[in-house]
Design goal:
Oligomer: single chain
Number of helices: 18
Helix content: 40-55%
Distance between the termini: 51 Å
Number of strands: 16
Strand content: 15-25%
Radius of gyration: 28 Å
């Protein structure tokens, strides 16, 4: 390649910068010597020296005395990734895999709690998001609509074929799709099921049921597995908004109506609340949900625990007994809970192709295998899950599972429910008063935000 003498300096400077930008010369790579560049591009060494010196002054290159000229680390493109708290995911491994194929890119992570998420993305403000600097955003099934409401996520439907193939598990009800448009790609998920301590079953002379139980059958089973004298409980559930409300819906009650509005004061819901309150108070089948029920299960003091695969590492690390899982009892027409973790792309990113490649790395076989080995949840790629793994029982339950919270006003409903439930379990409030108070408070507090949500849905 030859360069016109009149514009040699300007053109060769742009040419060299483009080679660095395109990854021909990567951060840390040594640039050919002035002599080699001069002979290859037919430019005088004096001009080459002047061009390299100007790029050193700009910070594009740096000189190492007696060794040569190198591409600066600062020339690496920064891909900024927002992460809600999920310490189980090995982000160092993910970074290594991505930067191995994209050496010109440096991945920067920012971790936030869910409350910090609300602040940074303006879920509680009328003025929109307060922070739009992220290229890739981790989103749960119940935070997607908040991001869409503030126009943060890009429609990535055009990349559907790049993300999905026969090895990728399709989640029911498409939690990351709205109006036939995809806004995120799942990488982990888990239905809510019931973990069973096989040792307690064996010692009690009871077999783990191999079919869906009715609640009457389940109650009889839980009583058989309860031994008050040694503080052994038949069943436990966590006081967590992504867990115990599943019991209410599987018992025929309702947290939300078909339009997503609060529906707590129906007779069926009150009956379900009383049913499980009695598990804790009169029947003594269950410990208080506000107690450390996971710790009790790991100590072998609980026969059955309502939970999901995201908690699996704690069981593997702490439980010295074999365990199995069964579906949550109740008719199949009532869905169980589903949790999902995925990644979307900021609508304002300047690095769309890199963001797409990053998500492809997240769902790649190599990284999905790492997620499987770390038991972070259930990987979205079938081929990495061992055939005899307990996770296949969760996958089998997928058709009967749904995301319980789809948007920010529903998130608020479940938040308010969780704040008041300790009073229910301690019998400081009746199921009837609990349902009526929440129905009244929630209807009043979220009316405006719900109407705003409906207007936003009309816009998109």
């Amino acid at each position: 390649m030859r360069f016109d003498r009149v514009t040699t300096t300007e053109k060769f400077t742009k040419f060299l910068k483009k080679q660095i930008r395109d990854g021909i010369y990567k951060p840390g790579d040594k640039i050919p010597s002035e002599r080699v560049l001069s002979e290859k591009y037919h430019i005088s060494r004096l001009t080459i020296n002047k061009i390299l010196s100007s790029l050193v002054a700009e910070g594009v290159l740096f000189r190492d005395l007696n060794r040569g000229t190198y591409v600066s680390e600062s020339q690496r493109t920064k891909l900024s990734v927002y992460l809600a708290h999920n310490p189980k995911m090995d982000m160092e491994k993910l970074t290594g895999l991505f930067e191995k194929t994209h050496p010109q890119v440096k991945v920067d992570y920012t971790y936030f709690s869910l409350r910090e998420f609300e602040y940074n993305f303006g879920m509680e403000t009328e003025n929109g998001p307060k922070n739009k600097k992220f290229d890739v955003i981790l989103t749960y099934g119940n935070t997607l609509d908040a991001l869409l409401q503030h126009q943060l996520l890009k429609d990535i439907s055009e990349y559907e074929s790049a993300f999905f193939n026969d090895d990728i598990i399709r989640l029911p009800d498409s939690p990351y799709v709205r109006d036939n448009r995809r806004y995120a790609v799942p990488c982990l998920f888990s239905p809510v099921m019931i973990f069973c301590n096989k040792d307690i079953y064996r010692k009690s002379g009871v077999s783990i049921p191999g079919k869906n139980l009715s609640w009457k059958e389940f109650s009889i089973l839980a009583k058989q597995l309860t031994v008050p004298g040694i503080n052994q409980y038949g069943f436990a559930f966590r006081d967590h908004k992504n867990r115990w409300p599943v019991l209410i819906t599987k018992k025929g009650g309702s947290i939300l109506d078909d339009n997503g509005k609060c529906k707590l004061d129906s007779p069926e819901t009150v009956k379900a609340l009383k049913f499980f309150r009695d598990y804790v108070t009169s029947a003594k089948i269950s410990p208080s949900p506000v107690s450390q029920v996971i710790k009790l299960f790991c100590e072998g003091k609980v026969a059955m625990l309502l939970d999901c695969c995201y908690t699996l590492p704690r069981f593997i690390d702490s439980a010295n007994f074999p365990f199995d899982v069964i579906p949550v009892p109740g008719p199949g027409k009532y869905p169980s809970g589903l949790l999902a973790t995925g990644f979307g792309i900021n609508k304002e990113t300047k690095h769309e192709k890199l963001a797409v490649d990053f998500i492809k790395t997240v769902i790649s076989a190599e990284y999905q295998m790492k997620l499987e080995q770390d038991n972070c949840g259930i990987p979205i790629r079938k081929s990495v899950i061992p055939q005899k793994s307990i996770k296949w029982k969760f996958i089998k339950e997928l058709p009967n599972s749904r995301i319980s919270m789809r948007n920010s006003h529903q998130f608020e409903i479940f938040d308010q429910i969780q704040a008041l439930t300790p009073l229910l379990w301690s019998e400081m409030i009746s199921p009837e008063d609990f349902a009526q108070k929440l129905q009244s408070d929630i209807t009043s507090s979220i009316h405006d935000s719900f109407e705003q949500h409906l207007k936003w849905e009309e816009v998109i």
